[in-house]
Amino acid sequence: MSQLEDLMRPHMAKIASYHGVDPSVELARKAGIKPEEVIRLNANENPYGAFDKITDALTNLDLHLYPDIQQRKLRAALSEYTNQPVERIVAGAGGDEIIDLLMRLFVERGQKVIDCKPTFGMYAFSANMADAEIVSVPRNSSWDIDIPAMLEVIDESARIVFLASPNNPTGNLLTESDACALLDTGLVVCVDETYYEFSGSTLCHLLEEYENLVILRSFSKWAGIAGLRVGYAIASANLIQHLLDIKQPYNINIAGEAAVLAALEHKEELLERASSLVEQRKRLEDAIGEMEGISYYPSEGNFLLCRFDRRTAEEAYAGLAEHGIFVRKFSQSVLDASLRMSAGTPEQTDRLIDALRIVV
Ligand SMILES: Cc1ncc(COP(=O)(O)O)c(C=O)c1O
Predict the structure, then answer these.
(1) What is the model's pTM?
(2) Torsion of CA 19, 24, 27, 33, to 10 degrees
(3) Nearest alpha-carbon partner for 355 in 323, 313, 316, 315
(4) What is the CATH architecture of 20-49+268-359?
(5) Which entry of 12, 153, 301, 333 is 20 to 30 Å from 280 by CA?
(6) Tens of pLDDT along 146-197?
(7) What is the position in ligand 1's atom list of the atom closest to the CA of 219?
(8) 100: Cβ below 6 Å to ligand 1?
(9) Which fold has domain 59-265?
(10) Where are the domains of the chain?
(11) Whose CA is nearest to atom 5 of ligand 1?
(12) Cα separation, 310 vs 316, whole angstroms
């Protein structure tokens, strides 16, 4: 190590960077195609693009002013949308920031953070940043969480459990009884409902009963503003006040705030887009159901995890990329024959189905 690394916090100096998605230009360069030929089905983004009423709301903003530290307008609008009191809501720069804030608030070096693999990679990434011990308990063959195995790893040093519902990439929901079994341990349980607007399923009602429950939501997917980075947490007023106290003061920028206000003002149209994406996912399911060599796991999100019988994920990924279609592959061995495909527009779904028929 050079001298500079010697000065760094040791766990930070050797942290593995997060592998997110490449820009379309980069995907095109690697595949030897034109950027406009790229079909991005690799990040569960909204394929309909930016919603025009949101884009319109981004003009003439007071960009010279700092945003409101208390997020008053934003939290009031979120309160109306979620039907939860303002005191129970805080916004973050994407759900990602909320995950990071929860680590900062609850987890000290060496303490346990628990998730259930395969799952969203940011829980482990943020746990590593906190120099925590990430314990990833394997899911069973239907991707449900394994409560006895989880209870076994929960000890004095365990602080927080992260459970996505629907889970990314497997698409299944967390059951209420499993959530309660973990909430009853007294640990903080973050139920990540980033895909709520697609699943229509929430455990928000448990907030009345549990002060240790955090519900995480996002505007990245259904509202199509992944690029503006806004998510939020709903939890007990006590927990939320602590998150407000420790967050970066101006974490939500003026554009993000304006975009969310516009999205909520026109939520019906955006929710219609979300349900059309669910329709496209179902079309994909039907088509795959008739193909040989590929199957899918039931999903409640805007994505589908598919398993190839005759190809490795790597081969299938490369085959789809030749058609300009980019999906998500994973490094975990349990997923080495699987790819996650985001729901696209009807035209993109047609292209995906045609390409799959050739690639499987
Ligand atoms: C399960 C889950 N949680 C959280 C996020 C983070 O979303 P964002 O930070 O864009 O709000 C994602 C994004 O893919 C996700 O899949």
Answers:
(1) 0.97
(2) 170
(3) 323
(4) Alpha-Beta Complex (3.90)
(5) 333
(6) 999 999 999 999 999 999 999 999 999 999 999 999 999 999 999 999 999 9
(7) 11
(8) no
(9) Aspartate Aminotransferase; domain 2 (3.40.640)
(10) 20-49+268-359, 59-265
(11) 95
(12) 9
